Amino acid sequence: MAIGTTWATGSWSTNSWVTGSWADIGGGSDTTPDSFTFDDQFNVAISSVRTSSPITVTGIDAAADITVSGATGEYSINGGAFTNAPGTVVNGDLVRARHTASGGTATAVDTVVTIGGVSDTFTSVTAAAANP
Question: Phi/psi at 18 (nearest 5 deg)?
Answer without folding.
Answer: -90, -60
